[in-house]
């Protein structure tokens, strides 16, 4: 069989620990036998980030802007314990944070559904994708604890030096707390465009919700920016695609989500997205079955798994033990990136390969061959728990038949 040829390179961001091991296995067992894989490789493993003073992360984000599609392996975000472990010069920032800021991107997380693993909400027969606005609000807040006798005011000074004041609360007789939040119109607009573009890409409805009835200026601004951008730039495209933009109050949204069958994108403000993405991920069963894609407002895509580097499995791997680590989310990061590359470069055979690889992966699990984490959840009668590599080999047996 002739290998599938690529045109534009894919930006490949390698990572750390167990997912770095899985990364190589995926390429060796499932990709390079079928594709003449063309990537621009960036090693975002912590060792190399430290060697390059994290320049490699910036370079990889620049390359992503240039080529438009990247696939990323999970990476360590250093904490105190990692300083001696990797002999770090500095506690380098989260690569995901750096890349997200450079691309001004929004993260979309989608569960992969398989027969045999029923969501805790059994009516969720289709995936719910969560889009989280990753800027501002309580994550960039200023807060104070104040003593009795304090008067708290909101004060702004405009470009001409004029002050505007508004009383927050007069703590005349008791102690208390206050908090200052902000967001930027531009950031909200980028978020809105990333959401509308992604909805068109996925041909799915998009929901957005805030608490605009209570927060008449702050949350209402989110609602207005979304509506304005939708009406001016997306309404016709949505009509043509037969999809909808649906706005409602956040509490109404939560009630509707629980009663729904899934199959749409749910755009959330920063805090709602933080909380709801954990709720949705847990309800669908497993973090190891959650894919993630960072989308910039101008349509640049970076695919990855939602989980981390699976450190505990890696330490077992280093001791020579065989692990049963789930590679599905990392695999789907590759298929997502290859499909998008194929779409942009008009390579239907590359897109078909991505479809087939996903099909083979799901088929493998639905035929009962799976890693330990899924075996613990699956209700299939004849389950067979396999190790990390054996799973990929089992996927390849099915992939070969589909190709
Ligand atoms: P984690 O790597 O997601 O793993 C947490 C636990 O979840 C694992 O110990 C494992 O449970 C289970 N798990 C996660 N993914 C799995 C998979 N593919 N297959 C089987 N089990 C899986 O989170 P963490 O241990 O908190 O973080 C480890 C490192 O990852 C940290 O350095 C963190 O900075 C980094 N991280 C990176 C990203 C990213 O690059 N996007 C995201 C999150 C965290 P059992 O041990 O019980 O089997
Ligand atoms: Mg959270």
Structure report:
- This protein has 403 residues and is an alpha/beta fold.
- It is built from 14 helices and 18 strands.
- The protein has helices spanning 17-31, 46-51, 55-67, 82-85, 95-103, 185-202, 218-241, 250-259, 270-284, 311-318, 328-344, 348-366, 372-375, 388-402, and strands at residues 4-5, 10-14, 35-36, 39-43, 69-72, 106-111, 128-132, 142-146, 150-157, 163-171, 176-180, 206-210, 245-249, 264-268, 290-295, 301-305, 369-370, 384-385.
- A 10-stranded mixed β-sheet has the order 4-2-5-16-15-6-7-14-12-13, sandwiched between helices.
- Helix 12 packs across helix 14.
- The radius of gyration is 23 Å and the shape is globular.
- The N and C termini lie close together (9 Å).
- The protein binds NADP nicotinamide-adenine-dinucleotide phosphate (NAP) and magnesium ion.
- The site of NADP nicotinamide-adenine-dinucleotide phosphate has 17 residues, from helix 10.
Name some characteristics of this structure.
alpha/beta; two-stranded parallel ribbon; binds magnesium ion
Choose one word for the global shape: globular
Mean pLDDT reading: 95
Question: Which compounds are bound in this model?
Answer: NADP nicotinamide-adenine-dinucleotide phosphate, magnesium ion
Helix count equals: 14
Low-confidence stretches: none
By secondary-structure content and strand pairing, the structural class works out as alpha/beta
Calculate Rg over CA atoms. 23 Å
Sequence of strands across the biggest β-sheet: 4-2-5-16-15-6-7-14-12-13
**Count of distinct strands:** 18
Determine the strand fraction and express it as a percent band.
15-25%
Task: Please give the largest β-sheet.
Answer: 10 strands, mixed
């Amino acid at each position: 069989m002739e290998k599938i040829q690529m045109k534009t390179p894919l930006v490949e961001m390698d990572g750390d620990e167990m997912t770095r091991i899985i990364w190589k296995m995926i390429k060796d067992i499932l990709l390079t036998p079928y594709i003449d894989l063309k990537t621009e490789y960036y090693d975002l493993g912590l060792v190399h980030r430290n060697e390059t003073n994290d320049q490699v992360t910036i370079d990889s984000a620049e390359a992503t802007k240039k080529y438009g599609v990247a696939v990323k392996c999970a990476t360590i975000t250093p904490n105190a314990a990692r300083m001696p472990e990797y002999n770090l010069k500095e506690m380098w920032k989260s690569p995901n944070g750096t890349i997200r800021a450079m691309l001004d991107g929004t993260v979309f997380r989608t569960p992969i559904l398989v027969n045999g693993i029923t969501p805790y909400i059994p009516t969720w027969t289709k995936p719910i994708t969560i889009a989280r606005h990753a800027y501002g609000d309580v994550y960039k807040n200023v807060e104070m604890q104040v003593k009795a006798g304090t008067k708290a005011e909101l004060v702004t000074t405009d470009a001409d030096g004029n002050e505007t004041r508004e009383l927050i609360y007069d703590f005349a007789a008791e102690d208390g707390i206050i908090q200052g939040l902000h967001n930027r119109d531009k950031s909200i607009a980028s978020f809105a465009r990333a959401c509308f573009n992604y909805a068109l890409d996925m041909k799915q409805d998009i929901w957005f919700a805030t608490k605009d009835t209570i927060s008449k200026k702050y949350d209402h601004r989110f609602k207005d920016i979304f509506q304005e951008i939708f009406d001016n730039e997306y309404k016709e495209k949505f009509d043509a695609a037969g999809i909808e933009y649906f706005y409602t109050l956040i509490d109404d949204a939560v009630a509707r989500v629980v009663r729904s069958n899934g199959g749409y994108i749910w755009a959330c403000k920063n805090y709602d997205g933080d909380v709801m993405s954990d709720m949705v991920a847990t309800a669908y069963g497993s973090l190891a079955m959650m894919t993630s894609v960072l989308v910039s407002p101008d349509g640049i895509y970076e695919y990855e798994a939602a989980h981390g580097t699976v450190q505990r499995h890696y330490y077992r791997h280093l001791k020579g033990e065989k692990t049963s680590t789930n590679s599905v989310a990392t695999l789907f990061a590759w298929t997502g990136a290859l499909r998008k590359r194929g779409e942009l470069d008009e390579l239907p055979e590359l897109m078909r390969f991505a479809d087939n690889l996903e099909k083979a992966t799901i088929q493998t699990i639905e035929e009962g061959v799976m890693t330990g984490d899924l075996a613990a959840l699956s209700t299939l009668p004849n389950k067979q728990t396999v190790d990390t590599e054996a799973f990929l080999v089992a996927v390849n047996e099915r992939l070969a038949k589909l190709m």
